[in-house]
Amino acid sequence: MLKKFDIVDQKSGKNHGSLLIPSEPRDVTFMQYCTLVENANRIKEYLSKSSDEGNYSEAKRIIMIKEGLNEFFDYDFKDFAIGEETDGSSIRLTLLGLDRYIHNLVFAYKPKKRHKSWFVKSNGIRYHVPKFTIDKVLKKERNPKMLTGEVIESYVVEERLRQACEGVESDKLIVANGKKKRGWLYKAEVNFVQNLKKIAILCRQKDESMPTDDYEFMEWLDNRYVEFKDLDMVSALDIIFFLGHTTTTYKITHALDTTLRRSIPV
To answer: Which is the most buried residue in 120, 123, 148, 256, by most CB within 10 A?
Structure first.
């Protein structure tokens, strides 16, 4: 459940709007999660590099934290007090207090391995997520119950994600889709879109199948992944955890033949 906090200047009494702060992981959208992860990676990279070079700046770290919170909450934190480091167990309306609280909330969640088929709801529509197959001889879970085409397409998307982010420096300005943005924001957006595409490949509406024609599939995927743009972090991570077993189990060569979109159970 999101908690609403009004932001009021204690000196002037002026209201600076409000913040909706998540109280549990499911309140966090997958886009917010991707943004948080990439900014955390960015700060980690900076701390490592500045330690090696001996030029650490606390002011720069605070700026990075502020920029991350700006994106996460879609709010300008320019007038917020820095505050003190906290354990993050409760909400403190300071930059460091909010940053620690959000990190604790988000990174404490561990994706669940589900033993049965389940459903996820997005944009008002229910989508079926398959279960793991059972090896009847060994009597244990074997692989995610996916078709060959689904496995291949998931791997193709994963490879595109890797290539798109390869060599991108978090703090460097880059041009993407005609717009300038920092590398960490670019990587957050790429991770968001490509992982939604993997989710779209796996999840199905009732009695729905994936198109087998190349052009029809690409059009279908471009339209379908958008339907998951408001997916919460918990649902997204549970599905991606499921897919992680697929890409680990199946080592497909880079010379992928995407014409293998056939209804052959793996």
So the answer is: 120
Q: Is 101 exposed, middle or buried (0-12, 13-18, 19+ CB in 10 A)?
A: buried
Strand, helix or coil for residue 217? helix
Residue 255 burial by Cβ neighbours in a 10 Å radius (0-12, 13-18, 19+): exposed
Note the pTM of the prediction, 2 decimals. 0.84
Residue 231: Cβ within 10 Å count: 26
Q: In whole angstroms, what is the distance from residue 196 CA to residue 230 CA?
A: 10
Question: What pLDDT, in 10s, does the model give residues 57-115?
Answer: 999 999 999 999 999 999 999 888 898 888 888 888 889 999 999 999 999 998 877 66
Higher pLDDT, 44 or 145: 44
Tokens of 94: 């300071």
Q: How far apart are CA 70 and CA 162, in angstroms?
A: 26
* 265 SS3 class: strand
CB 212 within 8 A of CB 261: yes
Length, in residues, of the chain: 266
Quick one: angle between helices 58-73 and 30-53, nearest 10?
170
Q: Which helix (H) or strand (E) holds 62?
A: helix 58-73
Residue 106: closest CA among 190, 41, 20, 24: 24
* Integer CA distances (angstroms), 27 to 59, 92, 97, 193, 221, in order: 30, 18, 18, 20, 26
- Calpha distance 207→99 (Å, rounded): 43
What's the mean pLDDT in 47-58?
Answer: 94
Highest mean pLDDT among 60-64, 109-113, 135-139, 211-215: 60-64
